[in-house]
Amino acid sequence: MIRLSGTDAGFYYTDNPSQPSTPIFVVTFSKQGELAQQEPSDRLLTTEVLSERIGERLALLPAYTWKLHRIPLGLNHPVWVVDPKLAVEDHVLHLKLVSNDPYGELEGYVALLASRRIPTGGPLWSVTLVDGLPDLRQALVFCVHHSLGDAVAAVTSLRNILDDVVQPDSRPLGDAPETDAGSVVPGGFALAICGLRDQYRAWRKAPGVLRSVLRSAREAKVLRDEMAYRSPTIARRLDACVLNRSYGPQRAVSLSELDMEMVQKVRNLSGYSTTDVLNAAIAGGLRKYLESRGELPSRSLIAAIPVAVDPNDKAPRQWGNHVTQYLVRIATDSASAAERIERISYESKCARMHLEAQGMATGPELMEYAYPFVLLPALEIFRFKNRLRKNKAMADVIISNIPGPPENWSFDGYEVEGIHISGPPVDGIGVNVTLLTNAGRLALAIRTNPEALHEPRQLADDMRSALGELLELALGGELSSRP
After folding, report:
1. What is the spatial distance between Cα 66 and Cα 81, in angstroms, rounded to a whole number?
2. Is the pLDDT of residue 288 over 90?
3. Domain assignment of residue 256, given as a range
4. What is the pLDDT of residue 29?
5. C-alpha–C-alpha distance, residues 45 and 412, integer Å
6. 173, 196, 219 - which closes a domain
7. Do 212 and 123 share a structural domain?
8. CB atoms within 10 A of CB 408
C-alpha cells in the first residue's frame, strides 16, 4: 500500500468530466530486417502477443497493477493497492484504421480518448493496438491517468515494455511495494486511522516546512529585486483571451515533428539554448495562428513550463509526479522573431533562477497538505465558476520539453520508429504543446480544446514556419544571444 503524494493526488482530484487528466503516449513501430520480408499477416503484432508481453513484464510495471483506494471522510490522500483481479487482456484494445488519411484518423482517435476520463475502478491505464498505417506500420496508444505518473515515469514504462535490452529481473525501480503485501486492503476504519496517523506525522513537520518556504520566499524576493524582474504569478489570473477560457471536455490533436537539424543550426549559429529556440518557434507559431484569425491579444501570451525535480542519480522511476513549473512570457506581442527569442531567453533565465531561489520542491511540499476534506470543496467551487465562465486561467499554453531515449528501442523483431507524448490542457488552458527528443528526431504533439484552437495541424505548420524564419535570421547573422 502506497499513499499518493500531494502532487499525484492533485491530478486525481482535478480530473473531472470537463477537464479529463489523461496523458496519452503514441508509439509507432514496424518489423525490421529479414523479418520485414515475412508475409503481411505474420508481420503484424496481435493483441494476444501484446497482452502476453505486458504480462511477462509486470515486475517492471508495478504501477500498472495498482488501483486507487480512497480514505474515508477524505482524511488523507488515497492509497495505491495491488489489484488481485488484474487481467492484462482487459486493458488491451484493438483499432483498425480504414480512412484514406490514416494518420488523421489516428489523431482523431487520440483526441477521442483525450476527451474521456479513465475509469477508476481498477488499474488506471489502457493500450490500443492500431493497425492500418502505411507500409504495415502499427501504433500503440497508451492512456495512463496523470495521478499514476508524469512524462519521466511514462518513458520508463514504455521502455520497460518495448525495449528487449531491459529484462524483467535487471532493472531496479526504487520503492516498489511488495505485491503480496500490497494486495491486502485494510478496512475502512483502519484506513481512516492510518490516514490520521500519516496526517499527524505530516503536521509535525509543518513548522519546518513553513520556515523553509518563508526563507525561500525572502531569497526569491531579493533575487527579483536585484534583477528588476517581475515574473507572472499563479495568483494573478490573466486577462481573458481565446486560449484561457476553455473548460469543455472535447479535444483536438496533432502528432507531427519539428526538424531537429534546423533547431540545432539555429542554436549553434545564434548561441541560444535549444529550449530558447523551441519556445521561440512555438511562440512564433501561436502568434501567426492567432493573428491570422484576429484573436491575438495585445499582451504577451503566458506559458506554463513544467520542470522535473528528480535527482540526477535517482533510479529509474515508473510512477509518481515529481514536477513543478514556472510561468514565462513568450513575447507574442512582438512582431520581430529576433526580439521574441531574445525576450524569451531572458524571461526564461529569470523565471528559472526565481524558481530555484524559491525552491524547486516548495510547490510539491505544500501540496502534501492539500487534504481532500479541504481541497475537494474548493474544487467544486472552482468547477461551478468554470460552468459560469467566471474563471480565467493562470496561463495560455503549456509547453513541455521531454528528453526521450537517445536510440530507438526494438522488441521481438519490431523497431520503434516514433514516440509522441501528449499532455492534457488543464485549468482552462486551451493548448498543451509537448516536445520529445528520440534518436535524433523531435516529436511534436499538440492537444487543444477546440473552443480555444480547433486546427492543431495548422498550428504545427505555423510552428515549423516560425522555426524556418529563425533559421533564416541565424544564417544572416541577425540572431545573437547576449550573456
Report:
1. 5
2. yes
3. 207-475
4. 94
5. 9
6. 196
7. no
8. 18
